[in-house]
Amino acid sequence: MATATLPPLDPLFRASAKRTRAVFEACPDDSMVDDEKSVRIRLASKIHDEYRDAKELPPALLAQQGPVGPARPRDPARKMITAGPSDASTALIISQIDKTPTYQPSTFTSSTRLSQALTLHKTTRTIKPTYHPPWKLVRVISGHLGWVRAVAVEPGNKWFATGAGDRVIKIWDLASGELKLSLTGHISTVRGLAVSPRHPYLFSCGEDKMVRCWDLEANKIIRHYHGHLSGVYALSLHPTLDILVTAGRDASARVWDMRTKAQIHVLSGHTGTVADVQCQDSEPQVITGSMDSTVRLWDLAAGKARVTLTHHKKSVRALAIHPTEYSFASGSAGGNNIKKWKCPEGAFVCNFSGHNAIVNTMSVNAESVMFSGADNGSLMFWDYNTGTSFQSLEDVPQPGSLEAEAGVFCSTFDMTGTRLITGGADKTIKIYAEQAQ
Known about the structure:
Blueprint: H1 9-25, H2 36-51, H3 59-65, H4 113-124, E1 135-142, E2 148-153, E3 159-164, E4 168-173, E5 179-184, E6 190-195, E7 201-206, E8 211-215, E9 220-225, E10 232-237, E11 243-248, E12 252-257, E13 263-268, E14 274-279, E15 286-290, E16 295-299, E17 304-309, E18 318-321, E19 327-331, E20 338-342, E21 347-352, E22 359-364, E23 369-374, E24 378-383, E25 388-394, E26 408-413, E27 419-424, E28 428-434
Antiparallel strand pairs: 1-28, 2-3, 3-4, 4-5, 6-7, 7-8, 8-9, 10-11, 11-12, 12-13, 14-15, 15-16, 16-17, 18-19, 19-20, 20-21, 22-23, 23-24, 24-25, 26-27, 27-28
């Protein structure tokens, strides 16, 4: 009578142990600590199982390679990755690939010189931010009957203008905060303001599709710029040319001759509302940010887009050009929502991480302090050079307002860069000042 042969017990023991470990691993406690020896054995077994077929080449490939000889030493003329800047514009990773295949298990257990060099490279690129004094709320001005959507400071730094949902443009004394003048003429929310540094003109735009030029000597409208098909959300004056650029909900930016009211260009290409536009006297002379999540840099002479930046994931609502540095920043919603770009090609520089909200407005002063204000009332001050936040505040709605009316819609620094003016959903204008050291 033949006796049945029992299966080998070793595989069963292994399967049982593996299953037991999986059961108890789901609810670990302090007593379940892997000892170093078992970890080392488990890792060696895993490496053996996964790489045993790759230790040696197949016979056909081995015949092509020729006889296996000792590994040659690294050529001293070849360089490893070095930390810090090099003479070349980009660092090159130079590696020597030996034709002789060698298997080195030690690479799995010890850190290589490559990883050490990369770690050193990361640490040496850390830039220390410049110290900036903190900012403090010093004045709250009430007077508008709607959301304050636009603010502009005149070049002499004596007064500033605000526009709001009550369709009125108000002129305020910057030193005392007193109301000096109210200008009526728009029939819908005023969304953009700009004061000309070379003419006694104030330019305004609004959701009534109108762009208007106000003579500040007579305090009346002297020009209308007709052409937008929908609400106009932003406008900007060229620093050296008699040119006005406006942008709005018709997904276009329009370039106007300030004096003749002629429409020079229609900058088309965006597929969503153009929320902000900025001008500068060097290329690119016009920059637009749109709800289609793109930023476009325009060739003003040709009226065409030079570059389209598609890094943002959500609608771009704010732009800020640095007054002395050849760069600008853009803001949108979500994480890493503020980005810095280098002109003229629009090369990406860095992210400003930390303002996790819908950024509506941004401003930069000559001391490289950047401000960002968001829909939820959060305010952040940044070191523009490094993208480091050095102060965060919360906008406090005025008494009688809803908690949801803490949003910040517009901002600007005064000509000295030591005072910041913001307008928000609680219908007030707030002035922040840099604290003396």
